[in-house]
Amino acid sequence: MYDTQPIAASSGQSATQPAVRQILNFIDGKYRGTGNWFDKRSPLDNRLIARVAEAGCAEVDAAVQAARAALSGPWGGLTVAQRVEILYAVADGIERRFDDFLEAEVADTGKPVSLARHIDIPRGAANFKVFADVVKNVPGESFEMPTQDGAGAINYAIRRPVGVVGVICPWNLPLLLMTWKVGPALACGNTVVVKPSEETPQTAALLGEVMNAAGVPRGVYNVVHGFGPQSAGEFLTTSPGVNAITFTGETRTGAAIMKAAADGARPVSLEMGGKNAAIVFADCDFDAAVEGTLRSCFANAGQVCLGTERVYVERPLFDRFVAALKEGAERLRPGRPEAEDTGMGPLISQEHRNKVLSYYHKAAELGATVVTGGGVPDMPGELREGAWVQPTIWTGLGDDSPIAREEIFGPCALVMPFDTEAEVIGRANANEYGLATAIWTTNLARAHRVAGAIEVGIAWVNSWFLRDLRTAFGGAKQSGIGREGGVHSLEFYTELRNVCIKL
Length: 503
Ligand code: NAD
Ligand code: 6OD
Hints:
The chain is α/β, with parallel strands linked by helices. It has 16 helices and 23 strands. The radius of gyration is 24 Å and the shape is globular. Residues 172-173, 177, 180, 304-306, 467, 473 line the site of (2E,4E)-2-amino-6-oxohexa-2,4-dienoic acid (6OD).
């Protein structure tokens, strides 16, 4: 079971507090514990909410073996149409248990229910349906060629799954980002071993119940819990039974995984960190630019890889834009996930809060003007123990400061003025990351020019995080290697085999 008996009595919880859950690994279609357990605490108030079974080498090996065996079991024999039907059943299963997924995701992350209800959980289901449709409709390629004897030959390509895919996930959009990999991997006929973030184990575990109910054969979907180095993450990425690794997380973790994948020359798909710029031209639709920039800076408490941490504003608009951002940021009420007026949740953990606050302190030391925020909000009662920080806007620092260069991954942005289009393109590009940008202008020619010149994987014009899952998604420079989405996912999750037939 995903949620076994409460263990409140052994964990010092009072009778009035919700029970502490046990979160188990999911291997070969069954839930399994281990000898090692780690604590999962609520970001809201630091309360113990779950004990999680940490997978050791033995559990990771068992999961990988189950996944290998499943490749040649009933799963491997399904037609595309049969797989598609099962993936639709998985999506329907997530929708049927929408409230369970919502509750689990909110418990792990502390994010507002309104956010998880509109983004995280619906995308969890959509990731199965969209990739089921992609594999159902993907065209093949064929070439006729002449031969000397005049009879000719025909070449055609067939797609085959890569095998067992290791899926390593972060904590910021747990179900969304995990299914963004598992959906296409399964649609292509692979089997998976998922390592969710240690901070957010619940929805990946719960998905096991949905997989079983949807008729996914055992061993196709496996989940191992734990940490990175010398834990489940490293055991999985170094396992020779894993054929390919898809990863979302920090750039330095991606680099470590790439090294691990070098043994056996296994392919990697890496979606990594960012330091994304928004570029606001004086000819923008002011209200839309303010609203979009507030979302891109503060949604999910700034813990979105695509989020904005550098805002370049054309000088004539600068003061007015900063004032509007300040007003919007100050309207964001921190609070309990279920409260209707909650505009922002906590950060994921005390550890992450310490990192974000270290940048708040650094900005002050460097002489930034703190337009708003810069500290910790005054929270009531037990929420005082949570991982809260204030939404923060700075001005007065330049592109060379660590605040402008390094990924903070919190609800904060440095706003800087610019004078010319060429200048802002150069400044936006002068960063080691290249994930996403948002360009705000009503000048169509400028929009195309700037989008073409910014070194990123995703350029939005007059929007942010507007996603069509058929499009290529990924990062340039240190933000990633490879593209997923639509048919691009097939490039990673399948191998093309060319068949040449001499007539
Ligand atoms: P992280 O890199 O710390 O952890 C990600 C996952 O990797 C976790 O499951 C972790 O346990 C595992 N891991 C850590 N070390 C490992 C190792 N040596 N071997 C194998 N696994 C290991 O990232 P995070 O803190 O969970 O997430 C935040 C980061 O993710 C930010 O940098 C953010 O920009 C990035 N991110 C990027 C995208 C994208 O699409 N580009 C999306 C979301 C998040
Ligand atoms: O929308 C997606 O498919 C995606 N991968 C989003 C990533 C968000 C980063 O936090």
